[in-house]
Design brief:
The protein is built from three helices and two strands. It is mainly α. The chain has one domain: Tetrapyrrole methylase, N-terminal domain (Cobalt-precorrin-4 Transmethylase, domain 1), CATH 3.40.1010. Helix 1 crosses helix 2 (about 60-70). Keywords: Methyltransferase, Porphyrin biosynthesis, Transferase.
Length: about 100
């Protein structure tokens, strides 16, 4: 769900695994994605799970993080920008304002 142009920044020797999801069209089931994240991390690989928006807002980041934690895998979350506040910002509508 992230822009495919981001993949132009990936190292040449990186292995790309598509795990994309759209409504009713999942390339990998969530449990398969979770298992793959754990497996690759335990093999000592640097794993990046690229998502559009914030992984903890409808992004299954909580489920993936739980699986990694239970497997003893350290991980870092780099939050994205959720549409719940990026769209209003794009339209010039503040999500918070001291006067309102």
């Amino acid at each position: 769900l992230a822009s495919s142009s981001l993949l132009n920044e990936v190292r040449d020797d990186a292995e790309l695994i598509y795990a994309g999801k759209r409504s009713s069209n999942h390339h990998l089931k969530q449990y398969e994605t979770n298992e793959l994240l754990v497996k690759l991390a335990l093999e000592g690989k640097n794993v990046v799970r690229l998502k559009g928006g914030d992984p903890y807002i409808f992004g299954r980041g909580g489920e993936e993080g739980q699986e990694l934690r239970e497997a003893g895998v350290d991980f870092e979350v780099v939050p994205g920008i959720s549409s719940s506040y990026s769209v209003p910002a794009y339209c010039g509508i503040p999500v918070t304002h001291r006067d309102f």
